[in-house]
Amino acid sequence: MLNHKQITIIGGIAVACVAAGTTILCYSYKKNQTRKSVINLSDLWPYNISSKDQDGTTFLLSCPEDLETVLDRFVQELQYAKVIGFDCEWTSKSGKPQPVALLQLATVSGVCLLIRLSHYRGPLPVRLQSILSDASYIKVGVGPMEDANKLLHDYGIVVSGCVDLRSLAVRTKETKNSLGLKGLAQSYLGVTMNKQKHIQCSAWDAPSLSQEQIDYAANDALIAAKVFSVIARSKLESNVHVASALNNAVNNTLWSIVSSYCQGLVDCKFKQRNQSHKQNNSQNVGNNFNFKPFKLYSTRKQPLYDNCKLQAPDGQLLATCDRKKANWYIEKELADIVTETPFTIRLRFEPAGRPASDRDYYLYDKQNVCVVCGSNGAIVRKNVVPHEYRRHFPLLLKDHVSHDIVPLCVACHQRAGYYDNILRNQIADEYKAPLGSAQAVQMLEDPERRSVRSAGKALDNARDRIPEPRKGGLEKVLMDYYQVTSLSEELIKEASILETRYHNEAYIPHGFKVIDTIQSENSLHGLIDFEKRWREHFLATMNPQHLPHLWSVEHNHDRVIDAFGICFPTQRS
């Protein structure tokens, strides 16, 4: 058992500072509302682990200037305990969910930011966006993945590092209450939360929020962070390696122990184990909004750029290339190795073309970092011009395609995908090529065949257990379809595996229709303009700071113009 001094150090390093007698204050961005909230954190944390003895505070924020004034304090509180209580609130109108109105972020020390996204103008500060997208900062809550997906969908805000408290509760097996936040608060903190429906379903995008709404929203984030800190503390106390880590003052080791409790749970949806938990959860979680989960990216195990050198027979540098291509030339005895570092090969034949000048994009080495933020961690390939369009380009514009394949980190790739979808929808409207129409579906399903197959499966699997009236109805479905007066086992088997889908003769892929329309109207002129549009879109929405040298929105266009003698306007109409 750890002594009081060790607990003090653990609290300061692993789960931040929570002052004895700390309370949650609500402080509006107008700086004219300050009151004590209903929850006293001194009742939730039995150890006096802070010498600051300062009050936790909630800030209600509606503009960038006010957020910047409190962001330093919020970031400072995360210096040792990289845990953020995370939640979102939004309003539904006519049964349709509106964009996220309120983003709640809280530290375990009681500092809470309530950011009114419905009234906020401009992007969130880069520092805050970096913390949200950084998976090393654990965002805890009930159903955080759903909230993260909705933020991405509504505003392009990437949130990574989400851990569902329900998954931790199931793993620790220390709760007998329901797995909603209210049940977890009761189990771990002994606190009864106010979860009244009239507050939960209130107008979160109203011009001003009531004190009830402020308390409700702040407590959702603060309690989430607090539940995690209690679980982490209990685990630290029982960990035999903590004492030695404390003696050596290895802060990173302590944090690695805390974060290791979340192994296998980060950015994973909570999976219910039984129906009773599903029922309990549905009663306690109001934000039921169905989004597809985060795309599981296959990050590269090898660098995107190998920067191998390809020389002409006289030694002129032709281009940089990947190792696979260089090895192919060697294996085919079409080139010889010049140097190993950097790996350089010299062709044995005269190439079809040479660089026109030393300012050719393909002559320069390229960094294996995210071109947006410069991260050198996990990298994903990004097609600046989406493949669904590029694949239908004529060969001349497909050439030199690697210019538009750049490396992005997962967080930036997710954000870029959000902005790409906005442009795709605009293009769908412009070219009358809807993304979700019947024309965009390659295979359709026949409802009649589907009912026949369903009846066939039921009769094949459980014919003797089906009540007679129901069995008669199922048999009639099959007899009407096959136009027979009696059913054989073979016919039931055939019905149970009946193919219900058929090819949609009206199917036209969205990308094909867009490119075909452009070609029919403007030929190569329109395609070059379309390619440039996507490149400009990438620059405008992502503001990449680490693009390869000589990367350009005009890349390859001069060559196409020279080949076809086309005169292009300076800007897109």
UniProtKB/TrEMBL annotation:
| A GO term, aspect molecular function | 3'-5'-RNA exonuclease activity
- Reactions catalysed, as given in the entry: Exonucleolytic cleavage in the 3'- to 5'-direction to yield nucleoside 5'-phosphates
Q: What class of enzyme is it?
A: hydrolase
Q: Which residues form the 3'-5' exonuclease domain?
A: 58-237
Q: Which Gene3D superfamilies did the record assign?
A: Ribonuclease H-like superfamily/Ribonuclease H (3.30.420.10)
Provide this UniProt record's keywords sorted from A to Z.
Answer: Exonuclease, Hydrolase, Membrane, Metal-binding, Mitochondrion, Nuclease, Transmembrane, Transmembrane helix
- What GO CC annotations are associated with the protein? cytoplasm; mitochondrial membrane; nucleus
Q: Where are the transmembrane segments?
A: 6-27
Record text on subunit structure and interactions: Homodimer. Interacts with RBBP8, MRE11 and BRCA1.
The protein in question is named Exonuclease 3'-5' domain-containing protein 2
Q: Which organism is it from?
A: Ciona intestinalis
